[in-house]
Specification:
The chain is α+β, with helices and mostly antiparallel strands and about 350 residues long. It has 2 domains: about 190 residues, Phosphatase 2c, domain 1, CATH 3.60.40; about 130 residues, Heat Shock Protein 90. About 30% of the residues lie in helices and about 30% in strands. The strands form 3 sheets. Strands 1-10-9-6-7 form a 5-stranded antiparallel β-sheet, with helices on one face. Helix 2 packs antiparallel against helix 3.
Length: about 350
């Protein structure tokens, strides 16, 4: 997912402040997922402040919004920041979309009665494709080039668009993302008026009982639940218990290190874990958008040295390597991607039955 809304060289302190607020409004980079692809963009304009937002809600719902405020500089940035917080807080109440929008609008107008806003808002269940949406002012909610009502179902392969700051979509909105959502969103943005914001999403068709996707926030307290869920999934897939336990230990170590040391901004981030199960083999991937770090470059610890002479650290990835058969790393579009492979003999590794 790409994003652009900041002038490259703000001049005055006020311009720099507005640019910094605009940067902070951009959501976390959306990870590469097997079930969906998303891209968001903002067209630069000296007269408005626009943003888009994407975040996960309890129950696995994905919230999307595009917003446009006809006010520039620090004043516009302040209004945009307030609107973003109001939308997130409103959705957290789990009310119908119309009620959420009404609460957001009233709270915003109580402080900024002089400036209206354009907003397109939607929540979607990626598993079923069902969505519920609404909006205020100049906005578009569409599947392809066809506008949609407040509720519906997004078919796999189609693209759902949210746009704020206009009521018209260009021809690229009717196309499928043959070259990816970033390419399609960029071409669509070029057909729209300056200052608009947009976010587009497509669902991919999936088949079979594997793969599986899991996610958690960068919170140490969330690790145990995610690891437990993965171990339970492996058991349901018929993976021998010792194999699941080894992968659980490796994953616990990796997630603990990522949460503890991977983020420098103190903000909330999503960590994505992918699981593929095949006969005699389990593939596990861990994706995070923390600082770039390849743990495989760390040298193996000197286990022959005296305890007081050993260097601090290094045991974590060494421990992980002893638990799995293969590891690989790459930096992918701002994300660290660590892959683990564990092979097993489905019969030999099973616990013997009692008798």
């Amino acid at each position: 997912m790409t994003a652009s809304s900041i002038k490259p060289h703000p001049t005055t302190p006020g311009d720099r402040l507005a640019a910094e607020v605009a940067r902070m409004l951009l959501p976390q980079r959306f990870p590469h997922r097997r079930d969906l692809e998303l891209s968001g963009l903002v067209a630069e304009s000296a007269d408005v402040c626009s943003f888009y937002d994407t975040f996960w809600q309890p129950g696995g719902l994905l919230a999307l919004c595009a917003a446009h405020i006809p006010r520039a500089g620090a004043s516009g940035a302040m209004r945009a920041a307030a609107l973003q917080k109001l939308v997130r807080a409103g959705l957290g109440l789990s009310l119908p979309t119309d009620e959420t929008l009404m609460l957001v609008e009233r709270a915003y107008e109580a402080e900024f009665a002089d400036t209206a806003f354009d907003l397109a808002l939607l929540t979607l269940d990626p598993a079923s494709g069902r969505f519920s949406g609404g909006g205020r002012g100049q906005h578009v909610r569409a599947i392809g080039g066809q506008t949609v009502s407040s509720d519906g179902v997004l078919p796999a392969g189609s693209v759902l668009w949210l746009v704020a700051g206009t009521r018209a979509l260009g021809d690229p909105a009717k196309e499928t993302p043959d070259f990816g959502m970033d390419d399609l969103a960029s071409r669509l943005l070029k057909t729209l008026v300056p200052g608009v914001s947009l976010v587009g999403l497509t669902l991919r068709a999936t088949s079979g009982k594997a793969p599986h996707d899991f996610s958690m926030m960068n919170d140490l307290a969330a690790i145990a639940g995610l690891v437990s869920g993965i171990e339970a999934t492996l058991a349901r897939e018929g993976v021998p218990e010792p194999v699941g336990a080894a992968l659980g230990l490796a994953l616990d170590e990796l997630l603990t290190n990522t949460v503890s040391y991977g983020y420098l901004d103190g903000g909330q981030h999503e960590i994505l874990v992918g699981l593929d199960v095949a006969p005699g083999c389990v593939d596990l991937s861990v994706r995070d958008d923390g600082r770039a770090f390849d743990p495989l470059l760390a040298p193996d610890p000197d286990l022959t040295a005296e305890l007081e002479d050993r260097k601090v650290g290094g045991l974590g990835i060494h421990f992980v390597r002893t638990l799995v058969d293969e590891t690989s790393y790459e930096r992918e579009r701002g994300w660290n991607v660590l892959r683990l492979k564990k092979r097993f003999d489905a019969e030999a590794d099973r616990e013997p039955s009692g008798g």
